[in-house]
Design goal:
Largest sheet: 7 strands, parallel
CATH superfamily: NAD(P)-binding Rossmann-like Domain
CATH topology: Rossmann fold
Number of domains: 1
Radius of gyration: 17 Å
Strand order of the largest sheet: 3-2-1-4-5-6-7
Shape: globular
Structural class: alpha/beta
Length: 252
């Protein structure tokens, strides 16, 4: 129960990796404000994980929403010890670059990158008082790509750079680190009515050097460590959590 008396805010925590992070922090004694634009998913997470978890609706691309959500979390918990910027548009493929609408490009920037910045901006005054920590969620697509993913990849690369800039700008009072997941199967961290086992083939698991596709718990465990005092000497770092895939040479 290393997070007893600690208060955290996790964006995009109604489902997937964010939901797993919220669960892990609550299981270790923390109070967690689940933030999501999907009201049904956010409320379901808060209901499932108990009285140490509450929900706040928020569109992270809108500054008034982010400001209100942070204030609500602090008013509820009396403090803020950690902020996890997980909310994102999660569909990487946007089609050929020459046909990519500017509005689509700007939407990815607004949610993925600006949303991360806004959470940091409004959490900083509270995290300074607690000597807290920021964890952002990047992606292995920040360092490698598939075709037609320019908007998503650009925002995730921006998050990696934003994180080390925050670490240098905010230290020593606040630490900032990034986690860049690879393939994480999130089906079991959907809202309870739509939860299912991941539909994975043997080849999906076998192509990973560790022998399996990632689970949300893999990311949640690292995030909990980064938010803890055990990681007090760690800041400005991007942790790749991908089962070794970005280190694998592939020959045809």
């Amino acid at each position: 129960m290393r997070f007893t008396d600690k208060v955290f805010l996790v964006t995009g925590a109604g489902r997937g990796i964010g939901r797993a992070i919220a669960k892990r922090l609550a299981e270790e004694g923390g109070r967690v404000c689940v933030v999501d634009s999907d009201v049904a998913a956010g409320r379901d997470a808060a209901d499932e994980y108990g009285d140490r978890v509450r929900f706040e609706r928020c569109d992270v691309s809108r500054e008034p929403d982010v400001r209100r959500a942070v204030r609500a979390a602090v008013a509820w918990g009396g403090r803020l010890d950690g902020a996890v910027a997980n909310a994102a548009i999660v569909h990487p493929e946007v089609g050929p670059t020459e046909r990519l609408a500017l509005a689509t490009w700007q939407k990815y920037l607004a949610v993925n990158l600006t949303g991360t910045f806004l959470l940091a901006k409004h959490a900083i005054p509270h995290l300074r008082r607690s000597h807290g920590s920021i964890v952002t969620l990047g992606s292995t697509r920040a360092i490698q790509s598939e075709p037609d993913t320019v908007a998503y990849s650009a925002t995730k690369g921006g998050i990696v750079a934003l994180t080390h800039a925050l670490a240098i700008s905010l230290g020593p009072e606040i630490r900032a680190n990034c986690i860049s997941p690879g393939w994480i199967a999130t089906d079991e961290y959907a809202p309870r009515k739509s939860r299912k086992r991941p539909d994975l083939r043997a080849v999906d698991n076998a192509q990973h050097p560790v022998g399996r596709v990632g689970r949300p718990e893999d990311v949640a465990g690292l995030c909990a460590w980064l938010l803890s005092e055990e990681a007090g000497f760690v800041t400005g770092t991007n942790y790749i959590v991908d089962g070794g895939m970005t280190r694998k040479m592939i020959y045809k």
